[in-house]
Amino acid sequence: MVIFFFTAGLVLLIVGAEALVRGSSRLAAAIGISPLIIGLTVVAFGTSSPELAVSVKAAVSDQANIVIGNVIGSNIFNILFILGLSAMIAPLIVSRQLIRLDVPLMVAAAALCLPISADALISRGEGAMLFLGLVAYIAFLIYISRKESRPVQDEFAVEFGQESSTAKHWLKNIGLVAGGLGMLILGSKWLVDGAVSMAHYFGVSDLIIGLTIVAAGTSLPEVVTSVIASLRGERDIAVGNVVGSNLFNTLGVLGLAGVIAPSGVAVSSAAMKFDMPIMVAASLACLPIFFSGKLIARWEGALLFAYYIAYTVFLVLTATKSVALPMFNAAMLYFVIPITTITLLTITVRALRRRKLAR
Predict the structure, then answer these.
(1) What 3-state DSSP class applies to 122?
(2) I need a surface site. Which of 72, 246, 323, 328 has the fewest CB within 10 A?
(3) Does residue 50 lie in a domain region?
(4) Is residue 104 part of a domain?
(5) Is residue 72 within 8 Å of residue 253, measured between CB atoms?
(6) Does residue 332 belong to any structural domain of this protein?
(7) CA dist 25 → 149, 156, 158, 173, 238 (Å)
(8) Full-prediction pTM beyond 0.90?
(9) In the chain, helix, strand, coil percent, each to 5?
(10) Domain total of the chain
């Protein structure tokens, strides 16, 4: 029965997110909101609505480990799994705006989580600060949207279509939004309750369940959006969706959870010492890869994807207290991580040299 409710909740979250994104995108287009703003906010944030629904439900129920695990796990999943998989399908182009603004902001938001959780708590004031950061980001996007190019508008029209402003279409899209929200609310309840029951049944912590099953499940809309965009060869939608979703998760989801939680969101020592630094490291890894040639190559995507597999294996070995854990840790510490660091530094140095010669 627990598996049924967990699976049904996951299905409702995915279908609800799709309905919410479609309905809200077309409503926004009908009232004249810029396609750039719709793409970076409504679409990217809409695909993160399952994370929001699950984290809000968990925050109200005072299940802090689900909140933290969902946000951190989703951000790691977005960068390592989704970007990696999308780039392996086809090299991903990274736009100049993402390099100059959105990616540095994503890294800064991730890094900000370390000091504000140093006391093992994200208080209501700190949650409000994160959420206000999201509001400021959206306000800035509205400002720069006035310079939006025609190709961006055409791309949005291809993806979502030109929307009519007739009463019939308004009612249809309002129905999509309302239905999507309803499915998100019910799906989040079933998924969180099922995840907690599964954690207790298998004897693993809520944090591990949040970092793996819940995080991957609530990130499925991002998977679908980015992979389909990669298959279609559509500009940098695959990258923009991940970056926008991570910003929304960190600033919006974690911030709102901190505000509405009865006594703030408690951060476990395990999350502070390992999972949160991994989230920051994954975000930082984007900088040399994105800046090197405004392109995420297939081998770079494979590198990101391999690291997600390694991270998941570590969580499984830790949860099961496997005897193979010390050997795995040694291999990562003395072999994999140093080689990756050298590779990223080499990419950065070569990119800087190319730019210097180009001048």
Answers:
(1) strand
(2) 323
(3) yes
(4) yes
(5) no
(6) no
(7) 19, 10, 13, 9, 17
(8) no
(9) 85, 5, 15
(10) 1
